Automatic annotation (TrEMBL):
The protein's name in its UniProt record: Uncharacterized protein
Keywords recorded for this protein, A-Z: Signal
Top-level taxon: Eukaryota
Signal peptide limits: 1-17
Species this chain originates from: Neolentinus lepideus HHB14362 ss-1
Length: 206
């Protein structure tokens, strides 16, 4: 009986660690070097961050949401990602995300055809999305945790890196806690002293 219960438990943990049933393994360059559990197609997931060096308040981490940054002279809107606690006003507009062959999309449920998409992100800069579909960048990849003993959610990679994300407090143009790629003290947008390293998880809600 014990062996049966143990087998069921391990099988359940393995299933929980897998990506969405709609996810597929990727051969795209944006998943290079990330192993056989890398994939680049998934739908209707949320993003959260967990501190990779200190204990977290819960197992799922802090949710990430879009943080609008205004429009340029041609009307193209720019967004970055921030923690929900520091930017709680947008989750009802863009409630979840899609990963489509290397491109990250924030789902705008009123009209999915104009969902903001991931733009090129500079080293030391915030993770950025744009309303201009012509600037969509194929730079993201999901990586499933296939260890049944861990059962952790999949991770998000940017430029094939899983470990270059930080949360940093914005000090120019707002007060949000931003998701930064490869944080540096030379960027005045955020307070570098406030930064802490994080992993970005993909969470599927069924």
């Amino acid at each position: 009986m014990f062996k049966f219960v143990l087998a069921v438990f391990l099988a359940t943990q393995a299933v929980m660690s897998l990506p969405s049933p709609l996810a597929r393994r990727s051969t795209g360059a944006w998943c290079d070097g990330l192993g056989g559990s890398a994939y680049d197609l998934a739908y209707n997931f949320s993003l959260s961050v967990v501190n990779s060096t200190l204990p977290n308040a819960n197992s799922t981490g802090a949710p990430l949401v879009l943080n609008p940054q205004g429009q340029d002279s041609s009307g193209v809107a720019t967004y970055n990602l921030a923690t929900y606690n520091s930017q709680p006003d947008t989750i009802g507009i863009w409630p979840n995300f899609t990963l489509e062959h290397g491109t990250l999309l924030a789902n705008y449920l009123a009209d999915l055809s104009i969902s903001p998409s991931g733009d090129e992100t500079e080293v030391g800069g915030p993770v950025t999305l744009t309303s201009d579909a012509n600037n969509s960048a194929k730079i993201y990849c999901g990586v499933a945790d296939t260890d049944p003993e861990q059962g952790a959610p999949p991770l998000l990679a940017l430029y094939t890196n899983l470990n270059e994300f930080s949360i940093c407090h914005q000090r120019e143009g707002g007060e949000a806690d931003l998701l930064i790629y490869n944080a540096t003290s030379s960027n005045s947008l955020y307070d570098y002293v406030s930064c802490y390293p994080v992993l970005v998880h993909l969470l599927y809600n069924y």
